[in-house]
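User: My instructor asked us to take a sequence, write out its structure as tokens, and then describe one feature of it. I'm not sure where to start. Here is the sequence I was given:
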Amino acid sequence: MTLAPDELRGVPLFAGLDPEQLERVRAIARLVEAKRRDVIFREGDPVEGIFVLLSGRVKLYRLGPDGREHILHVVRPGQTFAEAAVFMPGGYPAFAEALEKTRAIVLPKAAFLALLREEPAISLAMIAALSRYLRQFVDRIDDLSLKDVPARLARWFLATAREKGREFWDLDITKAELASQLGTAGETLSRTLRKFRDAGWIEVRGRFVKILDREALERVAEGGENGVR
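Assistant: Let's start with the prediction itself. The structure tokens for your sequence are:
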């Protein structure tokens, strides 16, 4: 299948590019399609290039010594992934797996690096994207090392609300995947969700969740409540 020019216009990395520049990107792009549970690349695989997600969702994860999955990030449409790997020696640092039917493009490493040298607008957008991801991972390390599970969950609610621009949404990952992302067990996540709900801070109905008391979540996120008792 071919890639339509309009499919690139909604990607933040390419925002501000003129039609000629977008065509240069499209010329080097290769379309990748995956079904749910398809592995797009494995940790250690040679780096093919940078990926841009057009539709669907992709989870990035690593496997612990015990074989357990540790989710690093869930990629959503318009976002890029495997950016840092393009600039580093060695293979991909994690696994990428489709969570549902997915369409993405891959920009081959050598061609993409050449494009960065020739197009300052894309270079600046790439630096901005890497800076955002660095901040996200610094926050994640802070969460896992310094925050308890209630604080991590509260921060996740607040961050997701900011990302979506609203305080209610349907969960697009399973609770097991969310627990992995927060670095906890599924039972602990379920127990903490119940405590949040019983305290009147959130509403949970199936996959639907809604923030009812933002200030309470902000206090928990900063440790002001010393967790949930």
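For the description part of your assignment, you could build on this observation: Residues 9 and 15 are 7 Å apart (CA to CA). Try explaining in your own words what that tells you about the chain.
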